[in-house]
Write a structure and sequence with these properties.
486 residues; mainly beta; Nuclear Transport Factor 2, Chain: A; Neuraminidase; seven-stranded mixed β-sheet; four-stranded antiparallel β-sheet; 5 helices
């Protein structure tokens, strides 16, 4: 990844302004990597021959070599938990591309390392600084000066801080949807949104227009939950569940309560092409689905604590034998090798369906990776939403995919959040004509706030939807995964 970012510093595509913007954002990402990995040499490589620093009422100038030496001594004294942008950087570029400034706001969390090598209590700081840049002889942007300020935060203040990196992707003016799942068709650039209360699926086309892909209860659809597109097979896989007690439906079906199944629809015609379920009629709660590059389909059952594979011959679901039981398996995705990652209440389970190898995803003790509602995979990272913590996380994994190296908070405490739900990675072309990857997600599923829960102990029998004027239109947000912020 760092190599590709270094290449980005000298991209030739687009205008002078486009080239400069991409190079500066790449520089910002490389600086983050240098801090997270303690790489003083990499950090110094982004600086000019000397750098002017303004901080705490003083200014000083130091050579690149002196700064590298200082950070080589400094980095081993602490461990970075976070060096994350709180807002998209503000970039100003001279018309001829000879000079630029980039202003950033960062949430930085570090663990000082004691004399015996053990970490101490973390320190939380909000930084803001402006750096001036000039290109070197090879066109690589290098820092010439910085001027900034800082504010110490308590752990509570840091947890409540807003990480405002997302932008509006689409608005669906149907507040009664009570949505849950998101899927993306890369061939048509269509986003699909599932509805629990409305028992339907909405499509947002590339031009922003909204239409029903499946109307209410069409093809026997119950609450529509997790979804996944298999673009090459032109298929949309949809979890359908009658979980009326916890996910009320506008038109309930008491006779099929606590039943669920997996449906396959033809993407182009909308025709129902397959229906897959458990061999028995016991209580079930299918939740999320993923399709590997080889076309294998896997789904979680949160009620039964299962991960299942679709058996296309029998039209049934076959449970994968788990080494250890998991509580409430929820989001599921896969890496480039077809290895599955399943979120559950205690963490993330890694399952290799071919070898049968299973393990819990390893992470530093301080890192909280439980309770993800939906998971997505992109270029060696897992992206997931933690609604109970009001944040979207990006986890960078080790080469073998078995452990988390670092985390980045992509969004936190957004004012529009009302039970943010699942999302999907969308890869397209950015304004400069370069590839761009974004995580598009539901900001306000409103699965609890949308209803008057008149008698929670007796289930949904007396539960009613709030008046339309008390509900919010469905908001889809997107956050950039490559640094090319809007």
């Amino acid at each position: 990844m760092i190599y590709s970012l270094l290449v980005a510093l000298g991209l030739s595509a687009g205008s002078v302004q486009d080239q400069a913007r991409l190079g500066l954002l790449a520089s910002n990402e490389i600086q983050r990597h240098a801090h997270m990995t303690g790489d003083a040499k990499l950090f110094a490589s982004m600086l000019g021959d000397s750098m002017l620093s303004v901080d705490r009422g003083q200014f000083s100038r130091s050579s690149r070599a002196a700064i590298e030496q200082r950070f080589a001594a400094y980095f081993p004294t602490l461990r970075y938990r976070s060096w994350d942008d709180m807002r998209p950087p503000d970039i100003q570029i001279a018309a001829d591309g000879s000079l630029a400034t980039m202003t950033v706001q960062k949430l930085v969390v570090v663990e000082p390392v004691t004399a015996d090598g053990t970490p101490a209590d973390p320190q939380h700081t909000q930084f803001a600084w402006q750096a001036s840049y000039a290109p070197d002889a090879d066109g690589r942007w290098q820092v010439q000066s910085t001027a900034g300020s800082r504010q110490e935060l308590s752990a509570e203040e840091a947890a409540a801080a807003a990480i405002a990196m997302s932008s509006e992707y689409a608005v669906i003016a149907e507040p009664e949807l009570v949505p849950e799942g998101v899927a993306h068709d890369s061939l048509t650039d269509t986003i699909f949104v599932s509805s629990t209360y409305g028992r339907k699926i909405v499509a947002v086309d590339a031009d922003g227009s909204v239409r029903d892909f499946k109307s209410e209860a069409e093809d026997g659809l119950w609450s529509a939950l997790g979804m996944e597109v298999d673009a090459s097979a032109r298929a949309l896989w949809v979890v359908s569940g009658n979980l009326h007690e916890v996910l009320p439906m506008r038109i309930p079906e008491p006779e099929t309560h606590w039943r669920s199944e997996l449906l396959r629809f033809d993407l182009d015609s909308g025709r129902l092409a397959g229906r897959f379920g458990h061999a028995d009629t016991e209580r079930s709660g299918l939740n999320d689905v993923t399709v590997t590059d080889a076309g294998e389909v896997y789904v979680t059952d949160s009620v039964r604590g299962q991960v299942l594979q679709v058996d296309t011959q029998s039209q049934q679901l076959r449970a994968i034998a788990l080494d250890e039981s998991i509580v409430f398996p929820n989001g599921i995705t896969h890496d480039d090798r077809g290895v599955l990652y399943v979120s559950h209440r205690q963490g993330v389970r890694m399952i290799d369906p071919v070898s049968g190898r299973q393990s819990e995803l390893q992470r530093p003790d301080w890192m909280v990776i439980e309770g993800f509602d939906g998971l997505a995979w992109h270029a060696g990272t897992l992206i997931g939403n933690q609604p109970h913590r009001q944040r979207i996380l990006e986890l960078t994994l080790s080469d073998d995919g078995a452990s988390v190296l670092s985390q980045r908070i992509l969004e936190a405490n957004h004012p529009a959040f009302d039970q943010p739900s699942t999302g999907e990675v969308v890869v397209d072309t950015g304004p400069a004509g370069n590839p761009r990857a974004r995580f598009v997600y539901l900001a306000n599923a409103q699965m609890r706030s949308a209803f008057e829960w008149q008698n929670a102990e007796r289930g949904a029998a007396e539960t009613t939807l709030r008046p339309r004027e008390e509900l919010e239109d469905v908001l889809l947000l997107s956050v950039d995964l490559t640094g090319s912020y809007k």
